[in-house]
Each structure stands twice: as C-alpha cells, then as structure tokens.
Design a protein that fits this description.
single chain; about 270 residues; 3 helices
Length: about 270
Amino acid sequence: MRVTSLSVYPVKSTGPVAVRETVAHPWGLHDDRRWMVVDGAGTTVTARTHRRLLHVTAEPRPDGALELTAPGAEPLLVTPQRGSATLPVTMSRIDRAVSAGDDADRWLSRHLGEPVRLVWLDDPGRRTVGEVHGGAPGDPVSFADTGPIHLTTTASLARLNEWLRESAQERGELLPEPLPMGRFRPNVVVDGSPAPFAEDEWKRVRVGDVEMRFAEHCDRCVLPTIDPVTLAGSKEPTRTLALRRQWDHEVFFGIRLIPLTTGVVRVGDEVDVD
C-alpha cells in the first residue's frame, strides 16, 4: 500500500490544497486547519451551512502567511500575528483564538454575504482530542472536527461507487458519475488496500517513517453530499452509506488517526498497518 495523495485545508471548511510532501505533527499535518471562520458570537462557520466557503482556497506560504483566493475576488495575503487580540470561540475544548485582522474579516464577509471573522490557532497544544473521539490525555488537535489526521482508501471509494451505481439501477435512475474522493476531504489517501473498508480494522498505521494510531471511525456530516464545484446538494452518498455503513445512527467512511511520532510524509510513501 502507498500514499496516493496528501491534502491540507489551511482554513477549516475551505478548498483543499494538494501537497507532495508535508510534516506530520502531533496535532495533524503541517498547515492543516490552523485557521477557522466564526460568526459574531464565535461559533464556527463551515460549508455545512455556508457552501461558498468551498470556493475559497487558502494557499499557505513558507512564512506561515496565507493567500486567500475566491472567484471574483482580489487575492488577500493574511499573516498570523502572535500576541494580537484574541476572540472568544465556542468550539469544543478551546475558548479563544487569535484574530486575523479586519482585512481578512472584510474579505470573507463579502464572499459569504454576512459578517464573519477569521481566527488563527496560535498554539495547537491548547486544544486536545476528546476522550470520546479516541484521544488520550494531552493529545493535541488543530481546528479539525475531532481528530488530527483523516485517512481514506481508494478501495473503499471504489466499493462505494459500485454501491451508488447499484442503487441507481434499482431505482431506475441514470447511472451517476463516480464520486471523487475530494467529497470526503481526507488528508491521506491510500492505494493498494487489500479490501474495501479494511481500514476499519487498522490499529496502527505507519506512513513512511511516521507512526499513527487509530482514534475512531469517521462519521460523515452533510459535506460529502455537496458538490464543491457547483455547490449543489444531493442525497448521495449519505443515502447509500445509510444502507451499507450505518451504526449508532451515523454513517461512516474513513478513519481518524493520531500521530505517535513526527516526521515528513510524502506521496508515494509505503503504508504499513497492524
């Protein structure tokens, strides 16, 4: 098995940035979800309710700055400022984050059509993985929902696409185009798995020289049903996953991992599992 793609999402819920190599930190891949959009009350704003976030790309710079781009908007360079004012946030297991400044707030507010603010997690060690999500005391995490690294496999996606075609045939519908992996917003995609959903049973995963442990199976929200290009929503793949991959009233695809060691991970790295 080998890594076939790596992606980071520097601002939570925005478009993916594909990378050929990156560093795995205890809290996740380098540049992944260190920024987040919030409303005036500090509540997280995501593409679940604000789909236009999927059209925003945040390209990380080597100095830690971000270049925000979106259709019809001038690019904006945002630089994190340690020691800047903090804002209250209501995200689990963290109560404040650093303001990105008025320019970023205005840029994103124009794009989304309502007042929002951009905040930065200056120290990922300030937020930890919840015990209910497989965290041990002190396990850090960025602004990702519940775990540092999200892994999927091409074998599982292929099986899901088979199920989607079968379901369409049973309903007398046109056969759908294959669902792309990007709908699931993984960090690490693995090719060569011996069977679909074999990852359900993995307890340890080594990517190159970096070892990670299983934290939890990844329950899916509404985002995989939203086309990131057209922003149109549909019932799939949730409808089919509900028939095939539902337990505890949730549907599942992929796994979440917690790094046990740090180091560089690369596209093409060998993947070993226990």
